[in-house]
Amino acid sequence: MNPKKECKKIINSFRYAFEGFLSSFRTERNMKIHVIAMIVVIILGFLLKLNKIEWCLCIIAIALVISAELFNTAIETVVDMISPEQNPKAKLAKDIAAAAVLAMAIGAAILGVIIFAPKIEIALF
């Protein structure tokens, strides 16, 4: 294999992934909400001086929620492409994908409360 071609393929794969993320961010309200939540968590993390384990847990939770939203967007896009007309099974597939994001976001929120509540309580009192 040509090393230059391989390098270009790798660079292109990152570019396509970034384009997918930007497309999701531009078109999906919930992705904007998740990104805002991510920014808030990062700012609070610095302000409240999270330790390494707390940072790792927050980063994993953020990555899981953002990834779930991206998968949801991809599933919705494919379902809309395959079944542009109303279809109960298409609706079910989209609802289940959205439920997966909700479950992940609830788990991340609970994790956030466990990590941040004691630190905020100490900072306030």
Describe the fold and architecture.
It is a single chain. This protein is an all-alpha fold. The chain has one domain: Helix Hairpins, CATH 1.10.287. The protein has 4 helices and no strands. It has helices at residues 3-27, 29-47, 52-82, 88-124. Helix 1 (3-27) packs across helix 2 and helix 3 packs antiparallel against helix 4. It is flat. The termini are far apart.
Short description:
90% of the residues lie in helices and 0% in strands. With 125 residues, the chain is mainly α.
Report, as a whole number of angstroms, the end-to-end distance. Answer: 63 Å
In the CATH hierarchy, the third-tier topology is known as Helix Hairpins
For the record, the count of structural domains works out to 1
Residue-averaged pLDDT, rounded?
A: 95
Question: How does the major sheet shape up?
Answer: none
Helicity, as a percent range: over 70%
Which consecutive residue ranges, at least 5 long each, have pLDDT under 50?
Answer: none
Specify the number of helices.
4
Rg over CA atoms, rounded to whole Å, is: 18 Å
Beta-strand share of residues: under 5%
* Name of the level-1 CATH class: Mainly Alpha
Order of helices and strands: HHHH
Number of strands: 0
CATH architecture: Orthogonal Bundle
Categorize the overall geometry: flat
Query: How would you classify the helix and strand content by structural class?
Result: mainly alpha
